[in-house]
Automatic annotation (TrEMBL):
InterPro entries: DUF2187 (IPR018690)
Origin superkingdom: Bacteria
Protein name, UniProt field: DUF2187 domain-containing protein
């Protein structure tokens, strides 16, 4: 399984998206303000997602 890197955009929990701000051993810290409808969803600005629970939808690097 490929781990996300800082700056990657990931998707999790039925379509929520965020930008990875920090990569930990078992999880990533994600900024959710990337989403256009962030204010409507009344979510916290940041959340922690286990590496098993997301997919990378846009990489920050050109590999």
């Amino acid at each position: 399984m490929k781990k996300a890197q800082i700056g990657d955009i990931i998707e999790f929990k039925e379509g929520l998206q965020g930008v990875v701000e920090k990569v930990n051993e078992n999880s990533v810290i994600v900024n959710l303000t990337h989403m256009e409808n962030f204010n409507e969803l009344e979510l916290d600005e940041k959340t922690v997602i286990n590496h098993k629970n997301y997919k990378i939808i846009q990489s920050s690097t050109k590999a």
